[in-house]
Amino acid sequence: MTRGKAVEVFNVSKRFGDYQALDHVDFTIQENEFFTLLGPSGCGKTTLLRMIAGFETPSEGAIVLFGQEIDRLPAHKRHVNTVFQSYALFPHMTLAQNIAFGLENLGWDKPRREVRVAEMLELVHMTAFASRRPDQLSGGQRQRIALARALAPEPKVLLLDEPLSALDLKLRQAMRDELRALQRQTGITFIFVTHDQKEALDMSDRICVLGQGRVQQIGTPAEIYEEPENRFVADFIGETNFLDAEVIALDGARARIRTPLGLEFDAAQKGLSGPGPATLSLRPEKIGLQEQATGNVLTGTIRSRNYMGGYTHFVVETGGASLRVSRRNAVSQAESYAVGQEVRLGFRDESVRVLAR
Amino acid sequence: MRGARIWGLVPAWVLMLATLMVPLLIVAAVSVAERGSYGGFAWDFNPLSYREILFSEDWDGNLVFDPKYLAIIGRTLLLAGATTLICMALALPVAYVIATRPPKTKALLIYLVTLPFWVSMIVRVYAWLIILGSEGFVGRFWHWIGGEGTLLFTPGAMLVGMVYSYIPLMVLPVFAAIEKLDPALLEAGADLYGSRWTTARRVILPLTWPGLAAGAVLVFVPALGTVLEPMLLGGGKQMMMGTLIQTQFGGARNWPFGAAVALVLMAMVVIVLVINARRSIRKEARA
Ligand SMILES: Nc1ncnc2c1ncn2[C@@H]1O[C@H](COP(=O)(O)OP(=O)(O)O)[C@@H](O)[C@H]1O
Ligand SMILES: [Mg+2]
Predict the structure, then answer these.
(1) CATH number of the domain bearing residue B100
(2) Does the keyword Transmembrane apply (chain A) (predicted)?
(3) Do the Cβ atoms of A7 and A70 come closer than 8 Å?
């Protein structure tokens, strides 16, 4: 499968006055990709999206869309459509008119427009609502119409700015699946902005983690979660335990680690320059308790226990460090560990990520 | 509770009665009174004044239809209408530019729009007399490009003066309407391949229509009764309803006729206000 490049962002920076919203952001998005920009609020996700749409111009750098540099192209000439965070449906038009708006501007004739509008309404299951106005819809329905309106002109790239954040939990989950299916079905490149890491992991082909205006890491959901490259990514995505450690020897991608817990082992590393202080990241679900404790084994005391339904979360104190451990309630036995109980806990070398301090 | 609320309105009612209803009744009474020999009027019922608006007596004392006052009414409507349309066309881009500035600039610009209200109307209209006159910069420019005569004392001069006087009343409501617009809607317009012009026509205009309608009423109604611009910039050559009323009470000493024209003018204003009220009621009902 040969896939072309849909969007290339070359070293883009954006300053608002003295404030550096984006700092030398650089990445390439492939055709047909579901690409997610993930990061905490204020990290510059919307700004980046707005630059691709043409509502902001980069202070530095360039954006290339299907091989064409678009910095001088006004928004209305870019073959890119946006699903706005607030939906931004035209309140004075019916839903059908909203969807037809872009088609009219592209010069589609009436019969072709009508066919396409009907198709789009059907796609988002809103056919019965064609002649309603946006203020007569629920949040979820507005969301669908915003999606239909943006998809109707057959954009090459669809930009979605936190499109699910205004929906309630149940609806959000359903829309995740629908969006993902829609992307597969249409083959359009999606650039999806969210601050919700679960959403990002669930939906994306690749995730770009943004923090403080910089790209922190780009990779598949599994890479982002399992192999975080820095403390920001490890912390922002999922839960983790950070442990101070010492790198005593470095051999390519492997590092010899010594922890204050008294353990010494080898672990995968990336980005370390040499021996010295480092931080370990160890996910709570990768620590086994009692009979599941394998690999590097320690003993500790259970300090707290939170029953979460499918999981139980424990805090275990060992050698002066507090480790969060989560245990799947496979046979409804997790409650059997009591607070204050002595337990064995263990993790395998490959579960540990070594990060620069 | 209800009673107390009604009593609370008494001062307002008294004020309305004393300053609006009573004078209005007096004007209505005068309009059907007899013309006094030396100005003023005499208490004698005589609806002649209304007849005079449409008919005049020829040498033999026969009544003939005479459109000279109808022409004045028509001219008044035309000039007020043109003023309103020009104000709309100018106010839209001005209000749009102001509404899209940063907050501080916005406040300053709005202050500047209202600034002329701090100077007396007469002074401002006189200023145009100078600007358009042969020594003023517009008058000089007119001669420089080869124009002849004076720009003053023409319908055009009146129009310039009226647009200038009333345009703040259009800019303010239109600005308020544009400011309420969600900027994302304009971006959505551009995102969906709408040029600036398309977005202005299909998104901004329909959504700011209530502001334009409010501005139209605010401009059209006072423009109907305007006196200063026709007198000073029109040189009194082109009679308007306002100046007609004024001359009847002044030089012509025909109070009943002046009062009758004043009531016709008021009827026109009331019609405009009723149309506007019906429009907003319809809109409320739909919302
Ligand atoms: N037009 C603007 N003027 C000044 N600052 C802005 C502007 N737009 C965004 N910012 C700032 O840039 C930062 C990034 O904003 P944004 O891209 O909206 O973040 P996100 O979408 O990731 O929450 C924020 O601190 C925001 O205050
Ligand atoms: Mg945002």
Answers:
(1) 1.10.3720.10
(2) no
(3) no
